[in-house]
Specification:
single chain, about 220 residues, mainly beta, Jelly Rolls, five-stranded antiparallel β-sheet, 3 helices, about 5% helix, globular, Glycosyl_Hydrlase_16
């Protein structure tokens, strides 16, 4: 299967994403049945991480989430990032995934940013679970399990959050909440005078724009 979405990103403190989630949790609850993030990007124009990278509108990522439980999510092994110095909010871009019985390939504007091709032991071996003492939830599946079931499309917008915006990143105007705060969502809302003016509500710049979503059988 080949799946393509053409979209133009906004520039606000919003995360935009294009996901695939399992229609049925065949192998158990998240992330045992998998999650495919074809693209995720933060809406900040100048969000700079501790290494000096712009991780806002100049970065997009593609990720597979999989593991036996939330504590064993091995997404780090299947996470790929791509920088665009112009900024992904400036023009339309194409985010793509090719999904076969042997591999999953992530692309942006027809350029491959990452490929996942599990060996004979599948994702169980890729995650180095063999000697963990954990029961293999994908034992009855194919080489690509848990990514061998039906998934559905999610076009996602998320505001704030306690995992995607690092506390140690530098953002003009600051960040009105801490990821460790027990009331992070309340702190975010109470700080709206700090971030709401940057949304430029009178324009289309704050909106997520999608031109098309296309799916082909390979």
């Amino acid at each position: 299967m080949s799946l393509t979405v053409s979209r133009k990103l906004h520039f606000t403190k919003i995360v935009s994403a294009f996901w695939l989630l399992p229609r049925m949790n065949q192998y158990g609850g998240w992330p045992a049945s998998g999650e495919i993030d074809i693209m995720e990007s933060r809406g900040n124009l100048n969000l700079i991480d501790s290494t000096g990278r712009n991780i806002g509108t100049k970065m997009s990522s593609g990720t597979l989430h999989w593991g036996t439980s939330t504590n064993t999510n091995k997404y780090q092994l299947t996470h790929f990032e791509q920088l665009n110095l112009e900024g992904l909010n400036e023009n339309w871009h194409i985010y793509q995934m090719e999904w076969t019985q042997e591999s999953i390939i992530f692309k942006i504007d027809n350029q491959t940013i990452g490929t996942v091709t599990p060996s004979q032991g599948g994702f169980w071996e890729l995650g180095n679970f063999e000697n963990s003492g954990i029961v293999n939830p994908w034992k009855s599946g194919s080489l690509m399990a848990p990514f061998d079931q039906e998934f559905y499309i999610v076009i996602n917008l998320a505001v704030g959050g306690t995992s995607f915006f690092p506390d140690n990143a530098n953002n003009p105007g600051g960040k009105p909440w801490s990821n460790k705060s027990p009331r992070a969502s309340g702190d975010f809302w109470e700080g709206k005078t700090q971030w709401l003016p940057t949304w430029k509500m009178e324009t289309n710049d704050q909106s997520l724009q999608v031109d098309y979503v296309r799916v082909w059988a390979l």
